[in-house]
Amino acid sequence: MRDLLRQADAAGYAVGAFNAANMECVRGIIHAAEACRAPIILQIAEGRLAHSPLALIGPMMVAAAREAAVPVAVHLDHGKTLPCLRQALSLGFTSVMWDASDRPIEENVASTAEVVALARASGAAVEAEVGRVGRGEDGSESAAEIGTLQDCLRMDATGIDALAIGIGNAHGLYAQLPELRYDVLEEVHGALRAFPVLHGGSGLSDDQFRRCAALGMRKINIATDIFRAAAGACQGTDLFHNIDASVEAVSRVVSRYIRLFGSADRV
Fold first, then answer.
1. Most buried residue among 69, 98, 109, 114 by CB atoms closer than 10 A?
2. What is the structure's pLDDT at 146?
3. Is position 9 annotated as part of the catalytic site?
4. pTM score, two decimals?
């Protein structure tokens, strides 16, 4: 992930970070990346592992990345427990997110520094979060909180590679288009060593994506639109038809985002 974000920053585009939940999602995401000749981040959140155990889907994701014809980083999204992070690293994930955004900033910073040391031993990159992205990745309710420059700088000092910043964004579906705090991005733009990350991408407008990328967002997460495409493509009881339909639907959604983020034809 670290290398992909550096390349994106040098060229001024964003890398799509696409969440998978099953083999169909993995295949559709990889197919889109290869068709668009784009580098991507393939990820899964800890909150989804009750449905997709990491011991099963993790090796699949790593194998898909290794066999892909384009660069693919494999990332643990919203890691909340150290055993899960350690398992992801042992499986070959190249980056992990440590999400302690629900704790006081002092605890968030201290625990993140510990995770950075843990990940560095495996050569892996680390993402953290300040402020708070609204709603949990698993659908649980939580209020969005806006990150501050001071807190971003404190987190940046831990040696992280990427930083999710709360700017009024939220996971899941938006009831209405959110008012994103571009002033926060303007403040942190160029002030951090870590690359800013946008969570809660599904449902934002094309203009919002473009403005975020212009203000330095280098990793943009998409999950809900992928899951809806995979589920919505299924009809009837023909399992193998539904598998193919899900893969195709996911590929279409991911391809659109890759082009929107400016990462197509970068390989």
1. 98
2. 87
3. no
4. 0.94
